[in-house]
């Protein structure tokens, strides 16, 4: 191919990901073509014979669960997987046989209605997904169609090997290899928010050999082959090679542009499609989240099985009695039940075939008693939960206006679980804190700088009884004039007159401070953006820490203002002249930060030709890499770092060294070879080479940035602690930092006993230097076991003295504490402590601790976090809550519920959690009550008719009972009822323990509601039977037949269950009044309309209301008497309980009814009667202070 080459910036030495040389030997690609690396892409030849052989997936993406062809069968399968629905299906099928006690239509219609509602709900959700798919698949992108011509093509029509042109602010339609861009050096900026939630821009760069393809016409004759890894879900790795112009060029993740990421700050890019459709990495990651079911839902399944057992028992007992009666029907020619003609009857009543007749009766009874199972229970609960989620989403008190973020219930399956949380496992950074870093202090040349007082320092001062220092006065007595205070700068809260305004040049070690600030301005991956109108520089950083460092350097005289692909430029304060000068530093290599290295380094060349290695990282790795006796202020810096950690600050160590040219050349050769490796352990090889250069560093100092506590965190933790919820903090911070944050947010308090488990003892450190891993592991495990045992003894002693105990454990100890043979001991210790803090814990350890607590305690766990490192923890917990904070949206996308601030967890649990738990548990109990009431009347009627399998009611009465006459009020109850207002829920947090202890859905409560149903059914039948059985029903002297008896009894059932709901509701709204009394009115309207149609259809209901029931005073008297009699026990029980044995919510209701909700003394007395001893939170600190004062007296 012939191209005119443009003058280029050589970028091969810019970032660690840059491909250095265009050629690599063929035998370096040993994995390409092997298992997992078999993909071959023919660029610009997607329609060729070779390309068609591979038959790769097209670019059509489908996220729907169904297709038009599979919707009905798959949806029906989903519905009938539920045992109750499958049972009703079998009953419906049997209704078409002579065994059925009712017509087939009346049996099928309710089932069809319930299944249809669920299927419609599924269909609407899937239709929405389909609309999204259509919109995405029909998006357009420019594709090369030959002869250098690019035309708009729908995404769905893309094929592997196509050359595409993506323009600014467009999404990438597939996974493509970047070939060139509108920038001369072939870079582009990519926003990956849709993939990982990160809002910062990522820098990508094409191979140098393809960067010349800058015009559409350049692709007329472009041909290349790409061999790479097979489709996989790893977003951050890519191994491949491009064969172009008979040379092989290694490909890395930094040439890969992922589908659904967006092109930003770049006019256009050209790329070759390598993965399409469901082969793309984003779609490979699109797995369903773990299936979570609430404990109430699982228990409901057990209740259903219990009712099935009762149903089978009732049918079996009835069949036995039926068999006995049938056997005695014909003895010696005498017919006992002559009206059945036992001498000439069918098999169903044949005295000569009693076993077969009993079996058939058993099947009939299974259908007849099916109304014991509430057919509409599942669909009603689904609808109610969806509506509850909408209330959570639209709660104005859960809306965070500063970020314009409401709460979002991403799943409605776990609403009631929110009211049963026993343990909260929380991340720290970005969850308890803001993850909005502010540069507040630093140490340089052994001198500490910075006067600002942090939140943790304030808390420490208050804890120790010292006066809280003013931010402008430090312990040395230095002060600043508030009149000349500069306006606040986001990310910068540093105050020290020795450094500000260029005064650092007067410090004794100004040369060290200069290098310190230069390092802050150079060693980073920040991208500057200059406002063309104002000239102000803003920064696009990968983390809040990075941004804070660059801003601090700018504010202290070293402004980073420009980055090219080979240089960074600073405006520096020059000490000799006292003026700002512009200096550029040539970037030779960047050794990137990762979680294992815990440091970042850059190798730069100054304008004077010096080669410098600038490094910053965690103290745990940096101090070990310092030059021995390189400075005389190492110990002083260590002290400052510990002081900063005690103040709750995040610290980094800054160091540097000068390199000679020979040393750098040798390193660069090894580094280039490691980067060009195509093996899966390329990152390990790079880290090993980096180790060889990051040594003998000269210490400059340490930075300290503050991650402030979020507003309302201490108060929220206090309320949650009063509610009896245990709170664990799982963080990657140092132990000292985590402990002090614990004090600041009231998770710990002064006087609380602390059990500390770590491996920082001198003998362990000595062993670690030997390098014998087996010996280290054995000794470390023994030490952890010993500390756990000692901790349990200390805990027992503290409990005997009624003292609170906290557990603090570090990440190294957690490795051994979570092993199979020790984790039960660790859990015993942990659950006995009121607070647990796990420090230096990895994402995997967070998930393992969450699993241990969930499985070990058997109680509901809630995990809350805001970052990608919290995803495992959120998915492992019973409930995952994502904070939509500064670390992106990965935690939110993996969560069940998202909120914007930790403090909103208080309302989510104590208000919505309590309401949803009470509503759902009470709703289920009531469902079973109302169905048992009806089923008992049917069963007792059967017993009175010698189990002849004749229903007491008209077919349609039975069919519409759960669908039309009783379900709407209970659904409204599940959405709207409030036993206690939101204000009182927050005022009396101990109310939450009703859910944790499951007092509203215990077996005792469930069985009591079932007993209420049995009692109500018996009362309805016997009172109706005694009133109507043998006496005249109307003025004409006629007795009540089965039609009148059945309609009267059914009316009583409808009135009883709906009036029971009216008594049960604690918070009446107009909707509930309409639905309760409207359900009764609908019954009468139905009976009127149904009774008016042809008697062949209405059968026993024909004109029964107009001609029999309404004119008869007995009907109205019986109904009134039965309703009162059936409800008196519930009214009596409720009155006695409310007066003599009130539950906690009853006490609060009394307070509200008596108008004493604002009487602080009375409310406090009620709280003290029921609240457990609180050992965590602000109130516990007050209580502890009172106890200490009383002991001193």
UniProtKB/TrEMBL annotation:
<feature type="transmembrane region" description="Helical">
    <location>
        <begin position="998"/>
        <end position="1024"/>
    </location>
</feature>
<feature type="binding site">
    <location>
        <position position="870"/>
    </location>
    <ligand>
        <name>ATP</name>
    </ligand>
</feature>
<feature type="binding site">
    <location>
        <position position="732"/>
    </location>
    <ligand>
        <name>ATP</name>
    </ligand>
</feature>
<feature type="binding site">
    <location>
        <position position="650"/>
    </location>
    <ligand>
        <name>ATP</name>
    </ligand>
</feature>
<feature type="transmembrane region" description="Helical">
    <location>
        <begin position="1113"/>
        <end position="1133"/>
    </location>
</feature>
<keyword id="KW-1133">Transmembrane helix</keyword>
<feature type="transmembrane region" description="Helical">
    <location>
        <begin position="956"/>
        <end position="977"/>
    </location>
</feature>
<dbReference type="Pfam" id="PF13246">
    <property type="entry name" value="Cation_ATPase"/>
</dbReference>
<dbReference type="InterPro" id="IPR023214">
    <property type="entry name" value="HAD_sf"/>
</dbReference>
<feature type="transmembrane region" description="Helical">
    <location>
        <begin position="927"/>
        <end position="944"/>
    </location>
</feature>
<feature type="transmembrane region" description="Helical">
    <location>
        <begin position="107"/>
        <end position="124"/>
    </location>
</feature>
<feature type="binding site">
    <location>
        <position position="427"/>
    </location>
    <ligand>
        <name>Mg(2+)</name>
    </ligand>
</feature>
<dbReference type="InterPro" id="IPR006539">
    <property type="entry name" value="P-type_ATPase_IV"/>
</dbReference>
<keyword id="KW-1278">Translocase</keyword>
<dbReference type="InterPro" id="IPR023299">
    <property type="entry name" value="ATPase_P-typ_cyto_dom_N"/>
</dbReference>
<feature type="transmembrane region" description="Helical">
    <location>
        <begin position="359"/>
        <end position="381"/>
    </location>
</feature>
<keyword id="KW-0479">Metal-binding</keyword>
<keyword id="KW-0472">Membrane</keyword>
<dbReference type="InterPro" id="IPR036412">
    <property type="entry name" value="HAD-like_sf"/>
</dbReference>
<dbReference type="GO" id="GO:0045332">
    <property type="term" value="P:phospholipid translocation"/>
</dbReference>
<dbReference type="GO" id="GO:1901703">
    <property type="term" value="P:protein localization involved in auxin polar transport"/>
</dbReference>
<keyword id="KW-0812">Transmembrane</keyword>
<feature type="binding site">
    <location>
        <position position="846"/>
    </location>
    <ligand>
        <name>ATP</name>
    </ligand>
</feature>
<comment type="function">
    <text>Involved in transport of phospholipids.</text>
</comment>
<keyword id="KW-0067">ATP-binding</keyword>
<feature type="transmembrane region" description="Helical">
    <location>
        <begin position="1074"/>
        <end position="1093"/>
    </location>
</feature>
<feature type="binding site">
    <location>
        <position position="731"/>
    </location>
    <ligand>
        <name>ATP</name>
    </ligand>
</feature>
<feature type="binding site">
    <location>
        <position position="593"/>
    </location>
    <ligand>
        <name>ATP</name>
    </ligand>
</feature>
<dbReference type="GO" id="GO:0005886">
    <property type="term" value="C:plasma membrane"/>
</dbReference>
<dbReference type="InterPro" id="IPR001757">
    <property type="entry name" value="P_typ_ATPase"/>
</dbReference>
<feature type="binding site">
    <location>
        <position position="733"/>
    </location>
    <ligand>
        <name>ATP</name>
    </ligand>
</feature>
<feature type="binding site">
    <location>
        <position position="428"/>
    </location>
    <ligand>
        <name>ATP</name>
    </ligand>
</feature>
<feature type="binding site">
    <location>
        <position position="427"/>
    </location>
    <ligand>
        <name>ATP</name>
    </ligand>
</feature>
<feature type="binding site">
    <location>
        <position position="546"/>
    </location>
    <ligand>
        <name>ATP</name>
    </ligand>
</feature>
<feature type="binding site">
    <location>
        <position position="429"/>
    </location>
    <ligand>
        <name>ATP</name>
    </ligand>
</feature>
<dbReference type="InterPro" id="IPR008250">
    <property type="entry name" value="ATPase_P-typ_transduc_dom_A_sf"/>
</dbReference>
<dbReference type="InterPro" id="IPR023298">
    <property type="entry name" value="ATPase_P-typ_TM_dom_sf"/>
</dbReference>
<feature type="binding site">
    <location>
        <position position="840"/>
    </location>
    <ligand>
        <name>ATP</name>
    </ligand>
</feature>
<feature type="transmembrane region" description="Helical">
    <location>
        <begin position="83"/>
        <end position="101"/>
    </location>
</feature>
<dbReference type="GO" id="GO:0000287">
    <property type="term" value="F:magnesium ion binding"/>
</dbReference>
<dbReference type="Pfam" id="PF16212">
    <property type="entry name" value="PhoLip_ATPase_C"/>
</dbReference>
<feature type="transmembrane region" description="Helical">
    <location>
        <begin position="303"/>
        <end position="325"/>
    </location>
</feature>
């Amino acid at each position: 191919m012939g191209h005119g080459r443009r003058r280029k910036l050589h970028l091969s030495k810019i970032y660690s990901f840059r491909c250095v040389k265009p050629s690599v030997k063929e035998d370096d690609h040993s994995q390409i073509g092997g298992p997992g690396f078999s993909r071959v892409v023919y660029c610009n030849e997607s329609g060729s014979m070779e390309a068609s052989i591979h038959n790769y997936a097209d670019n059509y993406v489908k996220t729907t669960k169904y297709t038009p062809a599979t919707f009905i069968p798959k949806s029906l399968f989903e519905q009938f997987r539920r045992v109750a629905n499958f049972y009703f299906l079998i009953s419906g099928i049997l209704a078409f046989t002579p065994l059925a006690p009712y017509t087939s239509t009346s049996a099928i219609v309710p089932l069809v209605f319930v299944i249809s509602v669920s299927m419609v709900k599924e269909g609407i959700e899937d239709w929405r997904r389909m609309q999204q798919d259509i919109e995405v698949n029909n998006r357009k992108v420019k594709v090369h169609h030959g002869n250098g011509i690019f035309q708009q093509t729908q995404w769905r029509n893309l094929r592997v090997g196509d050359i595409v042109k993506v323009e600014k602010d467009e999404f990438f339609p597939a996974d493509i290899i970047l070939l060139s861009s509108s920038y001369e050096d072939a870079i582009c900026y990519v926003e990956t928010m849709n993939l990982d939630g990160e809002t910062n821009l990522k820098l990508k760069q094409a191979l140098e050999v393809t960067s010349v393809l800058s015009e559409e016409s350049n692709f007329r004759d472009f041909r290349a082959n790409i061999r790479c890894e097979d489709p996989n879900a790893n977003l951050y790795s890519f191994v491949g090679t491009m064969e172009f112009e008979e040379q092989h060029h290694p490909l890395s993740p930094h040439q890969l542009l992922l589908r659904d990421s967006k092109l930003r700050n770049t006019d256009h890019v050209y790329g070759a499609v390598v993965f399409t459709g469901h082969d793309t990495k984003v779609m490979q990651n699109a797995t369903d989240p773990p299936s979570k079911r609430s404990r109430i839902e699982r228990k409901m399944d057990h209740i259903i099985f219990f009712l099935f057992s009762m149903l089978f028992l009732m049918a079996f007992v009835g069949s036995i009695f039926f068999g006995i009666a049938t056997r005695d029907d014909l003895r010696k020619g005498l017919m006992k039940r002559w009206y059945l003609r036992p001498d000439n009857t069918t098999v169903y009543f044949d005295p000569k075939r009693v076993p077969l007749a009993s079996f058939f009766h058993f099947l009939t009874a299974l259908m007849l008693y099916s109304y014991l199972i509430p057919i509409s229970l599942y669909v009603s609960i689904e609808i109610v939960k969806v509506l509850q989620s909408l209330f959570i989403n639209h709660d104005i008190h859960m809306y965070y206006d500063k970020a314009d973020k409401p709460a979002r219930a991403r799943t409605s399956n776990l609403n009631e679980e929110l009211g049963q949380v026993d343990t909260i496992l929380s991340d720290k950074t970005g969850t308890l804190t803001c993850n909005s870093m502010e540069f507040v202090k630093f140490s340089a040349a052994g001198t500490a700088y910075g006067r600002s007082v942090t939140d943790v320092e304030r808390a420490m001062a208050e804890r120790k009884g010292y006066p809280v220092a003013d931010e402008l006065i430090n312990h040395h007595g230095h002060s600043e004039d508030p009149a000349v205070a500069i306006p606040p700068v986001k990310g910068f809260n540093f105050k020290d007159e020795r450094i500000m305004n260029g005064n650092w040049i007067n410090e004794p070690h100004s040369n060290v401070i200069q290098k310190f600030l230069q390092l802050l301005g150079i060693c980073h991956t920040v991208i500057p953006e200059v406002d063309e109108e104002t000239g102000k520089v803003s920064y696009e950083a990968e983390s809040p820490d990075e941004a804070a460092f660059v801003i601090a350097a700018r504010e202290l005289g070293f402004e980073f203002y420009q980055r090219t692909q080979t240089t960074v430029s600073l405006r520096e304060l020059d000490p000799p002249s006292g003026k700002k000068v512009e200096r550029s530093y040539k970037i030779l290599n960047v050794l990137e930060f990762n979680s294992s290295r815990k440091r970042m380094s850059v190798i730069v060349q100054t304008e004077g030709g010096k080669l410098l290695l600038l490094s910053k990282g965690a103290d745990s790795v940096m101090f070990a890499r310092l030059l021995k006796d390189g400075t005389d202020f190492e110990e002083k810096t260590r002290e400052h770092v510990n002081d900063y950690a005690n103040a709750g600050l995040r610290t980094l160590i800054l160091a540097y060294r000068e390199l000679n040219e020979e040393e750098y050349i040798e390193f660069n050769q090894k580094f280039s070879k490691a980067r060009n490796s195509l093996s899966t352990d390329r990152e390990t090889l790079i880290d090993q080479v980096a180790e060889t250069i990051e040594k003998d560093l000269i210490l400059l100092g340490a930075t300290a940035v503050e991650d402030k506590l979020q507003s309302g965190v201490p108060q929220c933790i206090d309320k949650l602690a009063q509610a009896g919820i245990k709170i664990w903090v799982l963080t990657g911070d140092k132990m000292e930092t985590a402990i002090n944050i614990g004090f600041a947010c009231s998770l710990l308090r002064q006087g609380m006993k602390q059990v500390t488990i770590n491996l920082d003892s001198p003998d362990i450190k000595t062993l670690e230097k030997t390098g014998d891993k087996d010996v280290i592991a054995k000794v470390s495990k023994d030490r952890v076991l010993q500390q756990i045992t000692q901790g349990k003894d200390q805990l027992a002693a503290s409990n005997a003295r009624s003292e609170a105990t906290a557990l603090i454990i570090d990440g190294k100890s957690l490795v051994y504490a979570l092993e199979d043979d020790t984790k039960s001991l660790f859990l015993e210790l942990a659950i006995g402590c009121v607070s647990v803090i796990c420090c230096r814990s990895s994402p995997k350890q967070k998930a393992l601790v969450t699993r241990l607590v969930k499985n070990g305690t058997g109680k509901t766990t809630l995990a809350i976090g805001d970052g990608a490192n919290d995803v495992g923890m959120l998915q492992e917990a019973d409930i995952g809550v994502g904070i939509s904070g500064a670390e992106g949206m990965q935690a939110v996308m993996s969560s069940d519920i998202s909120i914007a601030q930790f403090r909103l967890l208080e309302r989510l649990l104590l208000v919505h959690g309590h309401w949803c738990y009470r509503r759902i548990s009470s709703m289920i109990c009531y469902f079973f009550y109302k169905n048992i009431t009806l089923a008992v009347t049917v069963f007792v009627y059967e017993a009175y008719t010698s189990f002849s399998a004749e229903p007491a009611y008209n077919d349609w009465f039975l069919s519409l009972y759960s669908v039309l006459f009783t379900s709407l009020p209970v659904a409204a109850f599940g959405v709207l009822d409030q036993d206690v207002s939101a204000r009182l829920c927050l005022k009396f947090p101990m109310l939450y323990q009703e859910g944790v202890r499951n007092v509203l859905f215990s077996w005792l409560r469930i069985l009591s509601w079932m007993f209420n149903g049995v009692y109500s059914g018996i009362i309805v039948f016997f009172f109706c039977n005694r009133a109507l059985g043998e006496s005249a029903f109307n003025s004409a002297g006629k007795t009540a037949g089965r039609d009148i008896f059945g309609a009267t009894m059914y009316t009583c059932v409808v009135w009883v269950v709906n009036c029971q709901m009216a008594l049960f509701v604690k918070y009446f709204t107009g909707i509930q009044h309409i639905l309760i009394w409207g359900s009764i009115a609908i019954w009468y309207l139905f009976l009127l309309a149904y009774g008016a149609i042809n008697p062949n259809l209405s059968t026993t209901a024909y004109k029964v209301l107009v001609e029999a029931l309404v004119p008869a005073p007995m009907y109205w008297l019986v109904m009134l008497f039965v309703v009162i009699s059936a409800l008196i026990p519930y009214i009596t029980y409720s009155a006695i309980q409310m007066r003599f044995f009130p539950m906690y919510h009853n006490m609060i209701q009394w307070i509200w009814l008596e108008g004493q909700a604002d009487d602080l003394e009375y409310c406090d007395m009620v709280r003290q009667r029921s609240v457990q001893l609180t050992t965590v939170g602000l109130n516990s600190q007050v209580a502890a202070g009172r106890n200490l004062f009383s002991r001193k007296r």
